[in-house]
Amino acid sequence: MENSKKSNKIAARVWLVGWGKVLSQTQTGSTHHVLSGEKIYMKRKLLFVGVFRLLEGKNVNLRIVERDDTDFMVDCFNNIDFWGEYDPIVEQKSKTERMKQFDNPSNLAILTERKRFIIQKKDGTKIGFIGHWIVQPNRMMGIGYDIIPSERGKGYGTEAIQLMVDYLFLSQNIGRIQAITDVRNKASQSVLEKVGFRIEGTIRKSAFVRGVWTNAYLYSILREEWKEPKTLTKSTR
Ligand SMILES: CC(C)(COP(=O)(O)OP(=O)(O)OC[C@H]1O[C@@H](n2cnc3c(N)ncnc32)[C@H](O)[C@@H]1OP(=O)(O)O)[C@@H](O)C(=O)NCCC(=O)NCCS
């Protein structure tokens, strides 16, 4: 008992020192040079275990998808309206298939280290998904996001992306985060621009959407453009 109290105190102290360093380094724009190896592991671990049990925003939280979320996932993913007008519709899958996939992720999901999060309101209502994955061996990070139709246009998408960007730059040794969005998808472009992403160019015939090949914009935000966390700024517990 005494020992565990002692180790909790030490962990809290290590966290405070580490977090202070992250914040001061992000302010000087040099975080990615120093966040490496054990430090990243320690910060990631403390970020979740010690402080943020969820990634908490003002109106929404992000939390990693659990097996229990399969029903919500099936309801959303099998509903073509969930993907909006401009996102490719994903293959229909049964609850059993989704559960199997949860237990045995595809090679692609493993290779790209894909993680999915539930976007949920403060009362726990699930309203969408946001995910990240590695897009290059040199660890560029891609993100994707979708909100259920009834909850769009209320600011939740913007906040979820801001939370994810803060979390990724604070926890991963990456220089950029990118997103790809159909050239017609004004809502998606608007949320990305509100968070500070910029257009880099057009990807021609990038996706097969509702029977036609469509062009997309490649957006990105660099660590030096992000500068510091906007939403994930302090412990909330
Ligand atoms: C894209 C999406 C995630 C945005 O989430 P959201 O919660 O609706 O976003 P927000 O409410 O934070 O912001 C939406 C912004 O888009 C703007 N917008 C919405 N439709 C628009 C349109 N047709 N033209 C221009 N702007 C539009 C809104 O005005 C708002 O900007 P504002 O706050 O400056 O007014 C959501 O609309 C969605 O899930 N769409 C379907 C799936 C999809 O397209 N996913 C992204 C694939 S890249």
Written overview of the protein:
This protein has 237 residues and is α+β, with helices and mostly antiparallel strands. The protein folds into 2 domains: 1-51, no CATH class; 54-226, Aminopeptidase (3-Layer(aba) Sandwich), CATH 3.40.630.30. The protein contains 9 helices and 8 strands. It has helices spanning 2-28, 31-34, 37-51, 70-77, 95-103, 107-111, 156-171, 186-195, 223-226; strands at residues 55-56, 60-64, 115-121, 126-134, 141-147, 176-182, 198-209, 212-222. The protein has an 8-stranded mixed beta sheet. Helix 1 (2-28) packs across helix 3 and helix 7 packs across helix 8. The relative contact order is 0.14. Mean pLDDT is 84; it is low at 10-43 and 48-52. Coenzyme A is lined by residues 83-84, 86-87, 145-147, 152-158, 181, 185-188, 190-191.
Short description:
With 237 residues, the protein is α+β, with helices and mostly antiparallel strands. It folds into 2 domains: 1-51, no CATH class; 54-226, Aminopeptidase. Helices cover 41% and strands 25% of the residues.
Find the structural class using helix and strand composition.
alpha+beta
CATH class of the largest domain: Alpha Beta
Shape: globular
String of helices and strands: HHHEEHHHEEEHEHEEH
The tally of structural domains comes to: 2
Please, what is the CATH homologous superfamily of the largest domain?
Answer: Gcn5-related N-acetyltransferase (GNAT)
- Number of helical segments with 4 or more residues: 9
